[in-house]
Amino acid sequence: MSRFPTTPDLDRLFRPRSVAIAGASTNVDSPGHDYVQAIKTMGFSGPIYPLNRSADEVAGLKAYAALTDAPGEVDLVISCLPAGAVLDLVDQCGKKGVRFLHLFTGRFSETGDDEAADLERQIAASAAAKGVRILGPNGMGLYHPGGGLSFRPDLPQAAGTVAFLSQSGNNAVEVITRGNARGMKFGKVANYGNGLDVTPGEMLRYLADDTETTVIGAYVEGVPDGRGFYEGLAAAAAKKPVIIHKAGRTQAGARSAASHTAALAGTAELWSTVLKQAGAHEARNQEQLLDLMLGADMLPSSGGRNIAIVGGGGGRSVQSADAAEENGFTVVPLPDDVWRRVREKASGLADWVGNPVDQSILAGSPGGDAPQPACHGSPARTCRTPRRRKTNCSGWKPLRWRRRRPSPSDRKQPPRPSPTMQTDRSLRGQDEPAIFEPDI
Description:
The protein is of the alpha/beta class.
């Protein structure tokens, strides 16, 4: 049975009408202050309710002692409370009719502690009974410029159509900032941490039908629901480009993932197979992730897998052909109409040019009926080739070398050995090197 028979309803998670921050603080160096300030800075249009039992206001906004004191409905609550206070917050969310609870709060199952893991399970059960969906715990949450959401006040405010899901908060910040510097503008971004309730598979399935999203990237260490992840991934990859950076491929990386987000990393070979079967693109590191996301964002969608490659020298052409076929493309022979046009323009090259097109053969090579390279003395063009003895306007005579004895000035400072200087002791027993110079 499918995990997601219909599109998950996550609209109020990414576009809440009102937000409350539990644990909002007057300390400007605390997360409880950063969330309030970040949402203000991003231009959130609805009510923002800082929750603080002792302060009258936080970041210039009126504060409330408890969630139940906040006027009006609340769609999203962000928790900056200690782990021990979350169960009570879940109860308040149930009473208030809150749809989504984002737990920035950490120190649950990712610690490896049995009591912390048990508390996490209690929170999940209580929230499910009250109809409250949880993003996190142990995650920075949402960045959605179009919806006025951010987890840091210094992130770009320009809205775009690139979505990104990340199990790591710092990785999400790096991808946003580095991607923005390259020209990418982001839409919906979620750092989901442990993925206790709202899973990456569910969000992928949601983004598959999201009209605002054109490209999806993700950083994944492990998944809590393998079947759901695959279903969401396949649904998204069938409609738009999806690029996955799977971390924790090695034993050391897998151990780190377990302590970071309580993730079960799985084997690298299995993951590569799953991603390929679902139709997603695999990135091996953050740099490749950004390159692939940028390419998918900037380039028009292709109509198939047959491609032509036009590049520099032979080595680059060979490497490009290898990379293309290794990634599922087919480097096809040049079509007949292209070949005919090449023959019309340069008949001498028509049988030489193929796919990849090695442009180095076009430089300095007579192309049959193609224009010849201009040489020195040409009134039409300036030749950048160093001046040598030329025989005619279409080429140069091969360079010859002659030997001379060292002059007195040469003996004052013996020249260093070079390709144009060889030691010759046959010159009447002299120890001086013989000097070879171009015969111009």
